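ENTRY TYPE: paired fold submission
RECORD: A
CONTENT: sequence, then structure tokens
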Amino acid sequence: MASGPSILFVNQHYWPDVAATGQQLTDLAEHLAGQGLDVHVLAGAGGYSRGPRGDARAETRHGVTIHRVRTTRFGRARHVGRIVDYASFYAGALAHVLRHRYDLVVYLTTPPLLPVLGATVRQLRGSSYGVWSMDLHPDAEVALGMLDEGSPLTRALHALNNWGYGQAEFVVALGPHMARRIVAKGVAPGRVREVSVWGGRDEVTPIAARDNPLRAELGLEDKFVVMYSGNAGLAHRFQEVMGALVELRDHPRIEFVFAGGGPRRVGLEAFVETNGLTNVRFLDYFPRERLAEALSLADIHLLTLRTDMAGIAVPSKLFGAMAAARPTAVVAPAASEPADIVESNAVGVVVHPGEPMLAGYLAYLAERPEEVARMGGEARRVFLESYERDVCCGAWSEIITDAVGVPRLASERAEPALA
């Protein structure tokens, strides 16, 4: 049994849920448990797409005690059902943190405004808490047009969110642009930390094109594959991508592959069909055990981000591409985390929204395999140095141990093997 301070993480998603926040939290919780901390997670009993469905109230996995909150399960199809699901999770989470005492509670941001529970319990019991800001609410809803910035409801939601963030011992942002937004909300700069999302060096290892069985299965042996992998969501933009699809429709070697899902996929499929594009294919999500093959299928990856979502959301797909030793073509504003990472490390190309340069970059790189290989190798090196799971979890260990007042362990910042 762990003898260190007790830490509780609160988030709707956790293992075996496939939601990105659940996967990242699982990595961190198990890392901290391995450092001797008494780690607990409070999550929902229903999953994002699969996840746990039973009503077991507690279980232990890899040293982490997992508590499940019984919630309604109307799902994400309707706004009302989603709000009811969120409310039932808030109620269950509040009841748990009022019944149990922990040395530190860390609230994530799913469901939105979850840190408000931390501020509420702090007022009632003086409990210490931190915030892991995976995204910003209601900023995201305003940017996506779901809320009117000037409405009384939006102002009230901003006030609640700012209170939840402002009362925390620390707030962890995913990068400098998100950190600046958080400081602008009134959080003292000294309380804001930056830790990126991450990937695992062993989960995604580079596979050369000639050794990748997916190339043969899909008939892509002689193609230059431009791949968009994962969710095509509302936070992403595709104007420049669609322009490149049309401009490169007759290129003899370039093949576009969209693997995944999301609300924007239907529109992309309709665009391809309407324009009679024959060098574009759509695939479902690959099973996790084939993730390395799937990400290594690309010669270059695509990543897009709406201008108004910069600093609000940080797409994690960039780090999968880097782990696979592949460069990334980023369509995003200059003042955003993915554009910063790609441009400052020369691990791909950056197209700013509205620029018609994507097709030209892709055609140029399709004829220069040495340049593509160089950028991919550098991407893997930078990934291992700065965005690998052990590196980022080590940074989190320092934040947690500082917050609970225990000495840092020498093993927390072990250097990753550059391979």
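RECORD: B
CONTENT: sequence, then structure tokens
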Amino acid sequence: MRELTLGSLFDGIGGFCYAAQLTGRIKPIWAAEIEQNCIDITRYRFPEVMHVGSVTELKGDEIQPVDIITFGSPCQDLSIAGQRKGLKGNRSGLFMEAIRIIEEMRLATNGKYPTFIIWENVPGAFSSANGADFRAVLEKITKTSIPMPTSGEWATAGMVRGAAVDAAWRVLDAQFWGVPQRRKRIYLIGDFGGQRAGEILFKSESVLGYTPKSKEQKQEIAGQFADSVGTENSRAGGGDNRVGFCTR
């Protein structure tokens, strides 16, 4: 298996670069960040990573193409602890800059790069603007019209197969990876090269090292995965499928 390359938008202190390095198969190439103290930390830990500045000034057709682009876009306007301006807010609205950069790179490389994208954010994104913001995230990523769940609630795990990309999302909690706190985040994977997003995100827990604490948690996770694949009815957007649905 060849080594994959990674570019990190909204890099912070290099969390995605660190995760890439841990795999032994993904090489971080560049990072976009504007906070100098964060940049200093990343430079210390990953001296080979190129720093490319602000996402607002970055051109996707001018930087080195990479296999994977990660973007934990600012969460303040989506968080339930904030003013809930959503994607219209100055900070969380920077999500659109990431989409622009991805599109520019894909256009410049005839659709070859990136193959995968990973978006990370707070669970508050599900309810922001009464669910419309997460719908907008899915539509911008997949380039497909996505209906709202008839229940009015987005589930913690699901899949969408759109015109441009296969996407899957799931809420993960840091407490199950040795962090002494509950820290839930949405992780959304998009695959431009096939239909592997669900396979990547819903791998067996034992393979990932994620161990639910109870039998009930294991059953809940298994149920989420089974429902997220969808039925023929859910692919058409019908039915009350709160977990997720597939569409074309």
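NOTES ON RECORD B: The longest strand covers residues 166-173. The two ends are 31 Å apart (CA to CA).
STATUS: closed
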